[in-house]
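dumping this here before i forget
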Amino acid sequence: MTAPDRVPDPSGEPATTGARILLDTDGVITEWSREAEDLLGYGSREMVGRPLWPLLVRPDPGDGPPGQEAPADGLVRLRDRSGRTVETTWRMYPYLSADGPVTWAVFLARTDGTDPCDFDRAVLDALLTESPIGLHLLDTDLRVVRFNTASPGMRGVRAEDVIGLPSAMVAPRVVTEAVENTLRRVLHTGRPVIDYVQPGYPPADHSREHVFSLSAFRLHNRLGKTLGVATLILDVTERHRYRARLELLHDASTRIGTTLDIGRTADELAEIAAGRVADAVAVDVLDRVGRGDAPEPGPVTGEVTVRREAFRSSPDAALRPAYAVGETTSYGFPTPLTQVLHDLRPRLIPRIDEDGEWLAHDPALGERLRADRVHSLIVAPLAARGVVLGVVSFYRSTTPEPFDHDDLTLATELAAQTALCVDNARRYTRERNAALTLQNSLLPRQLPTLSALDLAFSYLPGHAGGTWYDVIPLSGARAALVVGEAAGRGLRTVATMGRLRAATHSLAALDLAPDELLAHLDDLMVRLADEVRPEAANDPLEAHSATAGCVCVVYDPASRRIEVSCAGQPPPVLVHSDGHREPVDIPAGPALGTTGPPFATWESQLPEGSLIALYSEGLVGGPEAEGVARLGSILGQAHASVQEACDAVIYSELSGRPDKDVVLVLARTRVLSEDQVASWTFPSDPAIVATARTLVDRQLASWGLGDLSFTTELVISELVTNAIRYARGTIQVRLIRDRSLICEVTDGSSAAPHLRHARTTDEGGRGLLLVAQLAHRWGTRRTDRGKTIWAEQTLDPGPGDPAAA
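structure:
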C-alpha cells in the first residue's frame, strides 16, 4: 500500500512534499512511495524489506559505513537504478504509528546542488557585507548585534567598535528619541514600520545631512520568543532632495506672481526660498525697472542703480541685510553681482574666502557677509525676454553644507520664473503709469467757480480705471454735475472715458435734458462697441467691455429745480440743510451701451443750502443701500464747509488705499436773489421792441451796468425781432445778473435759429451774426413751450457785486 504524498510532521514542522520512504528502527525499508519510484527507478516490491544505505553514495570510499554519513536534515546523493547519482535534499523525522514502534520517515526531493541552508547563509552574509541597504540587527535593549558594514552610513566603521553598544550611541544624530520610541513600539506590538523618514548625520558622514527611510520588523524564534528587531535603512537623500525641489518649484509656480506688483513678486520669491534653498535671499531690481522702464535687451554694462525689493532670512539664521528694503545702491565693481549683470550667467561660490578680493570692492556687503558668517553664495540674474531686470542672491551661513550645482540649477530656475513675473509686473506698471498719466490729463484739475453751487470734490485713482467727473456751466446760470465710469481698466478704458467726457461736454453745450444727454452717450457706446468688435474677434486679449455708467444732474438756481437721470449708476444723495435726506425715486436705468428701456428723469425743488452728492461705487463699496445710507448720515451732520463735508466722507468710508477709482462730488445749492433776475412778457408785436430796449436800459442802470446798455440793447433788439418774425404767441425777456450778464428771449417756436452769412446786397440775415459778435457766447435751448435764445456778456465783478461773492 502506497502512503500519501504529504505526511504530518510529528516534530511540529510543516508537512514536507517529495518522495517518502518509511524505515524501521534497523533502517530497513517498510514503505516505498510512487514518488520514490519516479526519483530512483526502483519499484516498491524491490525495495520493501531491504536497507536504504546501499543506495547512498559515499563522499569518500575510505570513510566509514555509508549509513553513518546520512544526515538527519541536509543534502545527500543517492544512486538510481541506472547507476547515476541523484542529488537530493534529505529530511528525516520520527514517524509514530497508532499501535506500533517508532519508525522513521525520510523525505527526498531532487535539487540543483545548492543547500538551502547555504543559500540562506549566503543571502544573510550578502546583506551584512555587500548590500547598499543598511541592515541592523538589534536585541531587545536596542543594542547592536550585527550590522551591514557596506552600507553608506556605516562604511568604515569597525564591527568590534560597535557590537554590543546601544544604537543611539552608535548613531546619535540619526537614532533620535522618536526613532527609539518607534523601535520599542515594534518590539512591543510586533507591527512593522515601513518607510519611516528620518533626517540625520550618519557615523560615516557626520558633516552632511542625509535623509533615511527606515523599516523595522520584530525578530522571534520558532517558539515565538522575541529576540530583537531588524531595521532596514535606505539612504533616500537624493530622492528626498529631488522631491523637495519639485515641491519647491510647484509652490513657486503657484505663489510667485500672484499680483502685478514688483515688490510683492520679489518678496514672494524670497519668502519661498529662504529656509528651503538658502538661509537668506535678497532680491535687487534695477531702479528704472521699478518705474516700469527697462534697459536695452542684452547684458547691462557700466554702473547701474538697483533697488532692494525684498530680503528674507530663515528664523534660525537671522541674517541682516547689507541694504534695507527700498534702499537704492550701486554694486561695487568687479563683484559676482556685476559679473552676473554683464554676462547673464549665474555664479556659484561654494566657499567664500573672507579675504577674497571681490569683497573689498563692495565694503558694505563684505562686512555684512563676514559678520553673519556667510560661507556660500549663489547669484542668479533676473532676466526675461532678453531684458535684464535685476539680481537674486542666495546666502548660506548656519547650514553647514555649501551650495552645489544642483542648488545652482534650482536657484536659476526660481530666478527665471520670478523674472517673467517681474517683467509682467514691470509692463503692467508701465501701462498703468501711462494710463494714469492719460487719465489725469483727461480729468478736470479743478472745478469751475459757480454762483449756483458751492463745490468740493475728492478723486482717488485706483488702477487706471474709467471713472470721470465733471461740473459743466450751462446757460441761464444753471450747472450740470456728472459722474460716470467706463467698465474695465487700462489704456483702452481710459481712452473710452476721455471720449465719453468730451461727448458729455459737447452734448451739454446743446442744453439737452439729462435723459436726452444719456441717450446720445448710449448711442456713442454702441458705436464704440462696433469699432472694437473686429479687434476682439482677431485677438481676445484686445477685447474690453464697451459699457459705462453715468449719472447726470442739472440744477437751476433761479427756480431751485433739479433734474436727475441715471444710466447704470446709483442716483445722487440729496440732503437738505436741516439734515433731512430726500429720496431720489428713480431707477438706475440700463448701462450705456446695453439695451433697455428709455432713461427716466426725476425732478424736484431743493431748499437753499441742500447738499447734492454724486459718487462712484468705489466709495461706498457698490450700489448696496448700507453704504449709501452711511454717506447720507455723514452728510446730514453739521459741517463748516462743503470741503469739510467731503473730507469727512473720505475719512469715514475709506480705511486704506482703494483698489477702484473713488470719486465724490459735493455741491451745496444757492438761489439767485430777486434783485438778480428781471423778466418781462410781451405780445408778438413789432412795437414792443422799443419798449423792451427801454426796460432793459432802466434795469441795467439800476444794477450799475450802464456801460453795457448799448450792446445789450442791440442784443435784445435782434433777439426780440427774430422772435416776433418767426414765432407766435407771447415773448418773454429775462435778464440775469450773475458772474455774467445773461439775456434770454423765450418764444413758442421750436425751430432752432442758425447763423447766416448775408451778402452785401441782402437787407437782413445779420441779426444772429451781430449777437455772436457782441456776446461772449450764445446759444439756444428747448423749453416746454418752445425755445430760449440766450447770450452772455462778461462782467468785471466789483467789491459790492453779488457776482464777486
